[in-house]
Amino acid sequence: MVRRDNAGFTMIELLIVVIIVSLIAAFAAPRINLTRYRVEGAMMAVSSTMFGAQRMAVTRQHDVIVLFDVPNQMMYVHEDANNNGDRDPGERQRGYPLGEQVAFGLNGAVARPMGSSAITFTKTYQGMPAVVFHRVGSASEAKGLYLTSRRANHPEDTRAIEVERSTGRVSWYRFGPPSTWKRGF
What we know:
Strand order of the largest sheet: 3-2-1-6-5
Oligomer: single chain
Strand content: 25-35%
CATH architecture: 3-Layer(bab) Sandwich
Structural class: alpha+beta
Helix content: 10-25%
CATH superfamily: minor pseudopilin epsh domain
CATH class: Alpha Beta
């Protein structure tokens, strides 16, 4: 006599599991803060792009200029191959958007020592605030920028990115309770 084991689930058991998972998702989904994840992703992208610009300046042995277009929520990386501070034919410049629901600014967060402007770099290039990474790895100045969500009055969404002048090191910070900045890297 051959015995058959009916291993598996019945349709009713599967339906109950699907209903339970749906209920859990319905209660958890409104609590997920997608905007904060977008700001976090933009902060990682901007700081990585700035780190890459600093590395590019060292490996290619010429200045790399990072520009910040505040009204259009863009960042540009310009390879200044002849170190003259101008955009010449043949020099590459690439643009990077900040991302959906992300903007430059403090959004009510307390300013860091670098200043309270959305972009604290004082050097301008093509009419935009900029930082220059030199071929020795240093930066033109020790300043930075703030990224936040476009939601009003949400200082906990704010991130700061700072550049060290002597080494060109890029560091970032998160603003959060209790109204303090915490270093990320």
